[in-house]
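Task: encode each sequence below as structure tokens.

Item 1
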Amino acid sequence: MKKILLLLITLITHVSAAAVENQHPSITQRDELIIVIPKDVKRDYAVFMHGRDPLQISDYCGSGSRRDVVEVVLIQQALALGGVDASIRFIVASSHARIIKLVHSGKAVMAGNSIWRDLLDDSDLLYVSDPVIENGRFEAGLYTISENKKALNAKSLADVRRLRAVSSKAWSADWQTLNAMKMNSLINTVKWSSMVKMVAKGRADFLLAPFQPSDDLSFTPEGVHLVPVPELKVGLQGSRHFAVSKRNGQGEGVINALNKGIKILKEKGLLEKAYTDSGFFNNQVKSWDKII
């Protein structure tokens, strides 16, 4: 009788342990994590990495570096610091809406770039990471082409209001900021590439973008050279976080590892360094006039 009882206790213990393991599945080297990023980010990420190991990077400057690109590096570093030892496969999507759809469905375990907190209210579908960009740290420039003298000669909010801005309603912080500026002309389009092309063709005067790490703060998305309107900037309110899918079986393990890794990156000063090296936290514009 004692032997039977002992056997039952052992069996129950093993079943309980297996149940706990199933509730909190570990992510192993055999697993593959699918992370979705925009097409242009994947392209610039390849340029920035140039075959390097993302886990060995502590200098986030260089060709291709910008906020979106270094966030792809930071994600991999955070996951590794959080204990995840799995291969990562990046897939691309053409718009923010498509990225969120892939994460909602669980086809991607997470989005590879940070997202404004007020866009992540689907608590039944998404885990939300700890903030990587705190409230009030996001500053943006008014980017235009060098041929657009009207935009480049703007000196005040009143001047800017006379220009044509382009953005996306899906980018809530940008859209709300431009509306708060009471622009006379505000054009809505879905894709980033469309915004750039509209500015290039003169259909819009400027778009909002983070300041870049280049000497003159310029950058060349979609083959179009953009420069900031000098001495003017805007402040976007809100914090930014990573979104992880609750419908993906790896989601719980990923969010736990990610938050652990983000904390370590903050403690090491690497999160701040990455955003500074990429030009996102930019001392060159510290004294510029924040028009909103």
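Item 2
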Amino acid sequence: MKIRTLIFLFFLFAATVLNAQTANVLPPVDQSPLDLSYFPADYPIMKIQNKAPASPVMRVLYSRPHAGGRIIFGGLIDYGDVWRLGANEATEIDFYRDVKIGGKTVKKGRYTLYAIPAQDKWTFIINREIDVWGAFKYNASKDVVRVTVPTSKNDHVEDLTMLFTKTNTGATLDVYWETTKASLPINF
């Protein structure tokens, strides 16, 4: 009886140790890391230096997929389809004040940002549904505004990149990937 009890305790201890070791296994690093861009671009540094406005105008949060030798537009991403404008979760844009996009006021708040790429233009979509993965459950009835803009060609960009560029009337959200650049005008 003592031997059975000892064997049972040994296996119980071994299972506990094995379970503790597997519980600490971390998931692999995401191949499309999360990134963000602010307007003004150096807002976080300005805030640390006590030189920043009370809040930024806006920021965009997105995952950065790699081209990896693939044809992106018209290949990986079909022309005419709604795209999450990144990888993984749908891209989100936060406005810390009311802005104007396509002549329409977009209220301060958090939104999802999609695009419909075409060969020579993109339609940007600001949508009020948030915390969604991809564009699989995209709901057009929740669109706040759609704006179609021409695209331009640029040097090859391996990783999807988004940044804000100051303009005379506000800023543009510039999106670069592969050899395509699309810019969403935002006025404030």
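Check on item 2: Residues 8-12 have pLDDT under 50 and may be disordered. Residues 28-187 form one domain.
End of task.
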